[in-house]
Each structure stands twice: as structure tokens, then as C-alpha cells.
Write a structure and sequence with these properties.
The structure is a homodimer. Chain A is an alpha+beta fold and about 220 residues long. Chain A has helices spanning about 50-60, 120-140, 150-165, 170-180, and strands at about 5-15, 20-25, 35, 40, 65-75, 85-95, 105-110, 150, 180-190, 195-200. In chain A, about 35% of the residues are buried.
Chain lengths: ~220, ~220
DNA sequence: TCAATAGTGTCTGTTAGACATTATGGA
DNA sequence: TCCATAATGTCTAACAGACACTATTGA
């Protein structure tokens, strides 16, 4: 039997409770690992790699994928469930509360508590969460992970989970205001104790391109 | 004849004159395009994709490659010189003044004046220059594109060429000082007219992690 | 002397983050 | 009433960018 050339592996992320979670599917019986990333080999009906990745994503969740990006090609000599020598990885995110299609054979796992996985897929998840953080940081995709109406605390929580760090509340709101990305509605929501929060909706206005400079800060020396 | 599975394409960049340049090699006679990116199919002696990319890089320049990163997999239905259905792209940079190994069959082209290329390779170059800007911005690789001793104007020029935009002189030097990445030597260099410039060397001290916040600025709305 | 480049000092507007305070509900 | 959460105002340190100025060479 001819060996498959490459697989397309999909890392679907979602904020779950207070952590970032990744969707895994149950491996066929007899595999060394019980779980794996959803993947597929390319089909003739897929014109592009993106098409293949979208098909894989649709096969495991019903919800709309907020965005999807290619992460790269992984070809270390490590074992992979498809037996392919090469895996092209994609990362995407789905809205808060998205359920898996098949609750028996797929589940969300916090990225900090992953089960045994093939080493290559573990590397893929690592690179994918990094890519997701960059994406969240540079484009307004967080809004697509929430319902139409959301509180600013909801939004901040999504950012914090995706970025993996706490944010300053006042700064968060100021930055949001300056970017004119959201609009208050006249609805409020009471959530247990505490003052009810105003609901907002995503309503991006025009850009304020500021283009602020060079930062040697971010440099990670080697 | 069986169709090759995938190629590894390498985008080597260097600052040339006032522009960013990419190394292209002459295509075999009879190709539709005269030039192409250097590429190779994987060999049994290559343990990883990175090894293949390094081998390709070494085959076209003698100089040390300052760094190399994978850009991604490109598989649009576009034509590629290797006839491979898939190309894995890598981007790297070589020091200012690096010559091509074979001056007859390879040459530096400013990225703004590329010759006819296969559409896939054109897309690869586009994505690679973006990746290179990110890299330059976030890690101190610019220093590896200069000789041991360099002037701050040299360094700023490298940054400007790689980033594709002008930088503010005073801010550039302040940021550099704050990051404690360079150290003045007691040498000066006179370059035609004007006051001679002091020579510096790369001497990174420890980091000052400041971790300054969330910026909705950078968001590119869609 | 002039032209060109190197290198610095000062000022200002912006903003991240700290801190404090008020507002408003549920328990 | 107490407590938890929402929302906002003020202050400060950091910093990017503008501007101006001095320094030092070759032509």
C-alpha cells in the first residue's frame, strides 16, 4: 500500500471555563494514543489546503469557525496517526460554548492538560496556540467568539483566555473605546451578584492608524 | 513518471543598496520563467525540512545565514518549477554584501522589481517578506546582517530596509540604549563627508522585560 | 566657508498601569 | 447590611516623535 503524502491537521480552540481548550477526537481502536487532532488527507474535491482544513473543521463542530490560519508544515520524524510523512497544520477558533458534533468521540481539552498525543501533534498544538495569540492580538477576531450582545467583562475574559495573561480593566476599556470597535446597547444583564453589566455589540468604525514605533522591548534575546 | 510530492523553497533576503533584495536562480532552459526561487526536493539525508532548507541555502551562498524560519505550505493550484503539488517555504537573511555562489546563474533582485516568476513563488515571496519583518521586529537578528563592528547609522539602515519604513533617529538610539544591546568601541569610521561615526559591537546584556500592554491600535479591521 | 553626516538635549502628546472611588445589584 | 461586580476618574512613569542644536569631518 502506498504511503499517504501529507495530512491536514486542524487545531480548533475555544475559551472553556477559564482556560483555552482544544478539540480532540478519539483515535481508532488499537492506536497507541487514545486521542488525536482531527485531520484528513486531501481529497480531489478540495481545491486548496484551506478547503481541506475547513472540511475537517465542519466535520467536528457545527458552529461557524471565527477564523482559520495555516500554522505551517510539520515533518519531524515523529509518529503521526495518519502515517503521513508531512502534516500541514491549521489553527482556528470557535465561539464560546460550541459543542462538538460527536460528544462520544470528540471532546474539548484544556491545553494545559492534554492527554497522550503523538509528538508531532503536540508540537502542532504548541505552535498553534502561539499563532492564535498573535492573531487575537492583531485582528478583532475575539468578537466572533461571543454572541451578538456581550458585556465588556465577557470580552475581556475572552482576550485573557486567548492571550494567556491578565489584562488591566481600565486600560482594556480605554483601548477599546479608542479603537471604536464596540457600541453600547440599551440592555443590561444581571449575572448573580454585583452590579449588572451593560451589553455591547461589535460595531467597528473607521480606523485610527497611529503607527507607533519601534520597540526593542519585545526582543527576546538569544 | 511519478509526480514529486513537495518542494522546499527558500527565500533568502539581504539589504542591497537601499532596498530589500531576494536571491533568485536561473531556471533550466525551456522554462516559461527565466528565474525562480532556489528549491529542492527532500533527500534521504535530510532529517528535517529545516535541513533541506539549510542545504538549499548553502548551495546558493557561502555566507552564514543569519536565521531561517518556515513560512508555511503553499499548495494553490498554481504552477511551480518543481511540478510539485506542494511547496514548503522558508525565509532567511544573509549579511549585507553577501555574494551569490554562482554569479552567472543566480542574482539578487529588489523585491519591488521582481522578474516573471511562477505565481506560487510570487506568493511565497510576499508571505516571506512579511514574516521577515515580524522576525526583525521581535528578535535581534539585524545584528547578524552586519560585520562585528558597525555604526548606528548602518544598523538603522538595516532596520529600515528590512522593515520597509523610515525610523526616527533619536528614538532608534534611545530604544537601542534602553535595550542594552550594543556597546561602543573606541574606533571611529569616516565615510566620505560628514563627522565620523563611532563603531559599536553587538553585546546584549540582560533583558528589561516591561511587558507593555494590549494595543487595539495594530488591529486591521475587516 | 559650506555641505553633509553624527550625535544629543528638550519638549510634548499619548498611553499603560496603578489606585481610588462611585454605582448598583443580590444575598 | 455586606459583598461582589461594573464603570469611571485621576495620577504617574514611560516613551515616540518633533525639533533644534552642537560636533566634526571633507570639499
Amino acid at each position: 500500500m502506498r504511503r499517504p503524502t501529507f495530512s491536514v491537521d486542524v487545531v480548533l480552540l475555544t475559551p472553556l471555563d477559564r482556560h483555552l481548550a482544544v478539540l480532540l477526537v478519539r483515535s481508532p481502536e488499537g492506536s497507541a494514543e487514545r486521542w488525536s487532532l482531527p485531520w484528513s488527507l486531501g481529497k480531489a474535491t478540495d481545491a486548496t489546503l484551506e478547503d481541506t482544513a475547513s472540511r475537517v473543521a465542519r466535520s467536528v463542530v457545527t458552529a461557524q469557525v471565527a477564523w482559520m490560519d495555516q500554522v505551517g508544515a510539520f515533518a519531524d520524524s515523529r509518529r503521526h496517526p495518519s502515517d503521513a510523512e508531512l502534516s500541514i497544520a491549521f489553527v482556528g477558533a470557535v465561539p464560546v460554548g460550541t459543542l462538538t458534533r460527536d460528544s462520544d468521540d470528540s471532546a474539548w481539552f484544556p491545553v494545559v492538560e492534554l492527554p497522550a498525543l503523538s509528538p508531532r501533534q503536540r508540537a502542532i498544538i504548541e505552535a498553534s496556540t502561539d499563532a492564535a495569540r498573535l492573531k487575537i492580538d492583531s485582528t478583532p477576531v475575539a468578537f466572533r467568539l461571543l454572541p451578538q450582545r456581550f458585556t465588556l467583562s465577557d470580552l475581556q475574559r475572552v482576550y485573557e483566555i486567548m492571550l494567556g495573561r491578565r489584562l488591566h480593566k481600565a486600560s482594556f476599556r480605554r483601548a477599546l473605546q479608542a479603537a471604536t470597535l464596540v457600541e453600547p446597547t440599551d440592555e443590561w444583564r444581571s449575572e448573580g451578584r454585583g452590579r449588572p453589566a451593560q451589553l455591547y455589540r461589535y460595531a467597528p468604525k473607521r480606523r485610527r492608524r497611529v503607527r507607533r514605533g519601534l520597540r526593542f522591548d519585545g526582543i527576546s534575546l538569544n
